[in-house]
Amino acid sequence: MGNICGKTESEPSQPGRPLGSAPPPGPKTSRVPPKVGGPPRTLGGAGSDAGSGAGGANNSGDPSDARRKAAEAAEARAKASSKGGKLQSQLNAQKKKNLSSTLAEASNQELRARDADEAANARNWE
Question: Where is this region: Disordered (predicted)?
Fold first, then answer.
């Protein structure tokens, strides 16, 4: 059986190639890329231009300066996330409550739900 829309061949061709006709194997290891030279530099920053490339004026290369900048950025992110919105304020309020007040609030909600159910049953009495 064959494909209705395809053309018919008297002898279908076999996929692959005969044994021993493989191309010769390539090199076993890849070439080592040429080394890129120059001192390490900090990308971005307030004093660098986007198209300035190497040799910017703000490339001090001091690791302690980079650590200080990273710490300042982390503090800024922490302050921004602590502000939060409505959900964050609700979560903070919930964290401030102690266990007894949380349990009392849950109990009051359950009592209100029971009262509402009893009122609905009384209205639907037949």
Answer: 1-126
